[in-house]
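To start, an entry.
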Amino acid sequence: MQWILVTGSKGYIGSHICKQLYNEGYGVVGVDRDNSSLDYNKYIAYQPCIGFDDIALQDVIERYKIKTVIHTAATSLVGPSVKDPDTYYKNNVDSSSAATYGDGHETFSEDIVNNPISPYGRTKMIGEWMLEDYCRAYDMSAVALRYFNVCGADADGEFGQTTKPSHIISVAMTRALKGESITINGNTFETVDGTCERDYIHVTDVARANVCAIDAEVDNFVAANIGSGLGYSNLEIIKAVNEYTDLTLDYDIGPARPGDPARLVCDNTKAHQVLKWVPQYSDLKNIIVTAEQWHKSLLV
């Protein structure tokens, strides 16, 4: 059996990756700063205790003959990164994100010159530089996956987002369940319905991309966008909540946020070519339905 070390194994994305690995026949060793029960994730065969030092972790790596690490342990919000950059540099400097690109684009491809505008984005960019240098110096290979807006939940209802909602889909679901309305920021953008369009990728597709990266033929280092390649508008998302669930979500229109671009969608061609990966679960209906199921389960 091939063993994979997953950091952040109990997190929103990490738990889905662990399940995907398990279902595809890999063994999983998980590392996470979360001190909840080790039974949290039944797909992890071994989880070191919190406070594990580098020497003990090296022993585990040697015991399981681990040659592949999937790193998902990171601190992920842009706003707090501005107030507390020290935490973000300590936690994030060896993982990636679409935040490496910065602003000024509507469609993102990997050949865009990166210009991150927040400490969060810069920590991700530095991580990519570090990985590229390590690969060149130590005969390693690495794939940096630049996630767009990760959303939805495990179809079996085992895992989902438990942290504070960070994008409109999770906010919309939370508000709808409470019987509250939501405010759309601007409706005069140059889009189909005047509201912002963003790229949303189902968390199961993100997990699949990580597993695909394990066997990708990469000589040195490559960064690949992980997004649906589709743009869903804020108004489309609200209409989908009302159409695909038994919830009712009212909305009003507020002013656009300064600097908000009309459309941010990824070009995922490189992921198709290098990882042999295509999204399978990221249609809007599936995203909304699985998110609803998960958020309802949190109320039980």
Notes: The CA atoms of residues 150 and 203 lie 6 Å apart.
